[in-house]
Amino acid sequence: KMGYPEQYETIEKIRQEIRRIVPMYERLGNHRQDWIKNNDFQTPFSGNDHRFLFSSVTSKSTLPIDESYPFTARIGSLRFHLGSGTRTARSERIRLYGKKGEIEISGADCLKLGLDVCKIIRVKSVYGFIERGFKTNTDLPAGQIFIPMAVNNNDVMNLINLEQLRQSDPCAAKACRVRIEKI
Q1: 0.70 cut: is pTM over it?
Q2: Which among 67, 65, 64, 69 is positioned nearest to 122, based on CA atoms?
Q3: In this structure, which of 7, 10, 56, 118 has its CB flanked by the most CB atoms within 10 Å?
């Protein structure tokens, strides 16, 4: 508790108090691991010849190819947390890091589209569009782009089928077919 007057000489003293006050941690650290023992005799590791039962794998079909939307946009995060980016944008330290949510495009696609002269591009899907800066990513294969989420008020959500998310399709929030336009 903050402001608690008692001083501890070592971390071990803190651990001792935790063990004394919190019953669940009473045996923690005493090198006897019976507090985490397996009490279930029907597990695969019990030695009773029980086997794992795996569920069948069902693969999702790939995104349908529409020639008017020739690119696959992969949507992901640059950070370990997600949100719209409004609080993160206020952080001086994160601003200095230099991530602005640029769309990443393969070098081959940048050349093919002639994107070397423009600074901002428009990415359109059948559900909406976004406008952002871009940068070349040599690790991306041609035909795919990466769009960071949790920046620019999470505008990338304009590109996906939000109705499909209600039908419990987690892939719908991670990829969609798009086209790229110079602005």
Answers
A1: no
A2: 69
A3: 118
Full pLDDT tens readout for the chain, 183 residues: 566 677 778 888 887 888 888 877 776 666 555 555 555 555 555 555 656 566 776 666 566 678 899 999 999 887 666 665 666 667 777 666 656 789 999 999 999 999 987 789 999 999 999 999 999 999 999 999 999 988 888 899 999 987 766 665 555 568 899 999 998
Cα–Cα distances (Å) from 83 to 7, 132, 157, 166, in that order, read 39, 18, 12, 19
Phi, psi for 118 (deg, rounded to 5): -105, 155
Reported in sequence order, the residue ranges of the chain that DSSP labels E, i.e. its strands, are: 71-76, 103-105, 120-124, 129-136, 144-148, 175-182
Distance of CA 40 to the CA centre of its chain: 35
Question: Residue 2: CB partners within 8 Å, gap ≥ 6?
Answer: none
Domains and CATH numbers, the chain: 8-45 (no CATH), 71-182 (2.40.40.20)
Q: Burial, 92: exposed, middle or buried (Cβ in 10 Å; 0-12, 13-18, 19+)?
A: exposed
Segment holding 165, helix H or strand E: helix 162-166
Residue type, 144: Q
Q: Which of 114, 104, 109, 106 lies closest to 148, judged by CA?
A: 104
